[in-house]
Amino acid sequence: MPETYLLRGVVKMKVKCMLAVFLVLAISLSPAPVFAASDWDTFTAEMEKRSKIKDTGAAVIADMLDIAPQGTEAELWNKLWDGEPRWRAAAAVSLINRVFPQGDPSRWQEVSGFVPQRSVQPRQLMTMDALFVAVDSLRQIPDGVWGSAYLLYLFGKSGMGKVMFIEEIPEGMDKVLNDVISVTGLPGDWSIKKIRGRLPVLPIYRGYITRDTADSRNMQYLDGYGSIASNGRYAWDRDRGYVYEVIEDRYERDIWINP
Length: 259
Hints:
This protein is α/β, with parallel strands linked by helices. It has two domains: 47-195, no CATH class; 204-251, no CATH class. Helix content is 53%, strand content 9%. The protein has nine helices and six strands. It has helices at 2-29, 32-66, 73-78, 85-99, 123-138, 144-155, 159-165, 173-184, 211-216, and strands at residues 168-169, 194-195, 204-210, 220-222, 234-237, 242-247. Strands 3-6-5-4 form a four-stranded mixed beta sheet. Strands 1-2 form a two-stranded parallel ribbon. Helix 5 (123-138) runs antiparallel to helix 6 (144-155) and helix 6 (144-155) packs across helix 8.
């Protein structure tokens, strides 16, 4: 009986050795090394682009700050819409640097309050105009697209930011985003689910609206400080570009303005 077990053990060992030899031969004879070299070239190219986003991109933003115009938040916001791309980009970067904590777009949720002397217009939404205009304008100047990618890279660190403003993106910015990704290889998930509204994101105040009407039109609630919230005092109609103060249905004082 012991001899039988010993024989079985020897047979198993031989089988394992033969399998190992077969695997070695299969690997050595396969075209994998050729593909590995190609994959390596692709990998290094992607790494170079990622490095360029951070290095060249940050330098582009710094250059914009050097020529950034002066003015109040409202004045800088007005400068986003007129002039050559370089100057619109400079105004946008200046506004980003001023309003976002430490100039970091991923901290957009920390921005609150309303634009001074502009009625009920949330600063949090004003900053999104600055981000979108910067991304669009920068890509139109030499090497500026790396600055666009750098700003998106920073903003992309906010999961909620992507959900709110990338998955549901203003008209026209979908093409801008795809262009930046195509040129720079910006990593990450930048999926777009729906086009909603258009620039400017900053809405116009249009009085009062009932909660039922706001819900029926899929409006986004803002809290008392004008920040994105699950429920709140204000309702942002991002499809039409208006913001309303919410009143309870019993007051029957619903004001609806069609564009």
